Amino acid sequence: MSNQSKAGVMRRKPDNDNTFLFLTDINSVLVSGEDTNGEFCVVHCSVNENDGPPLHIHENEDESFYVLDGELEMTLGDDTLLVKSGEYVYAPRGIPHTFRVKSKKARFLVTAYPAGFDSFVKELGVPYVEGMEAHMEPPTPEFLHKLIQVSKKYNITYPGL
Description:
- With about 160 residues, the chain is mainly beta.
- It has one domain (about 15-155): Jelly Rolls.
- Helices cover about 15% and strands about 45% of the residues.
- It is built from 2 helices and 14 strands; from the N terminus they run E-E-E-E-E-E-E-E-E-E-E-E-H-E-H-E.
- The strands form 4 sheets. A 7-stranded antiparallel β-sheet has the order 10-7-12-5-4-3-13, covered by helices on one side.
- A hairpin with a 2-residue loop joins strand 8 and strand 9.
- The longest helix is centred in the last third of the chain and has 13 residues, at about 140-155.
- The radius of gyration is 15 Å and the shape is globular.
- The chain starts with a strand and ends with a strand.
- The mean pLDDT is about 90.
- InterPro entries: Cupin_2, QDO-like, RmlC-like_jellyroll, RmlC_Cupin_sf.
- It comes from Paenibacillus anseongense.
């Protein structure tokens, strides 16, 4: 449900209109760049145990992660952190980073500034339908090609790919 008042106050939750199966995640765009004139976006992520993205670098945006439930092992540059429910991590642009879910499942918010990550999720993901499986399988060559092409558009790179 998305409600926005005349004053610009907005209320939104994950639903069929804003949720995508994205790599190994179920991502819901709670606040998009369209909502904030490109200033920032907020994405709610739900990820299963041992899943997470490949090591990558965002050149355009800083990211922050706030863990709602579960535990993430995050690699940020040369640092590896175990991030638990209630903890916040800031990942500046230009720093290689990744995460792996260490609990059965994790839910967390990603805020990116400026916006752009929300558009990346929408372009690379597929609309989520209740019951779709989100799990890691070896990517096909076609998917890797699409991932790299779409990532270039958003200035996201993958060291080692």
